[in-house]
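call fold target=PepSY domain-containing protein
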Amino acid sequence: MTPVRNQKDVEKAASRAIEALYGPEIKDLRIRVLLPFPNEHKQEGWDANVTFLLKGKQYTVDLLINQDDGQITNARLIDTMTPL
């Protein structure tokens, strides 16, 4: 796997992970919040808060992405809602 060093790399890794978890029919994948993990002084990965649409619902998922190899170490569903 390739290293994840910037927001563009995080978008690619997040897209692959969300597609693996929820299938290829996802739309409008966006990174809402991107933070270094565990902190900016000793960064080992990224904490990405991602939103996307699937079958008329908006999902918000939190992903922890390892910086060295792009592996997802944790994925957590935060919210599911019907968009207005």
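return ok
The mean pLDDT is 94. The CA atoms of residues 57 and 82 lie 5 Å apart.
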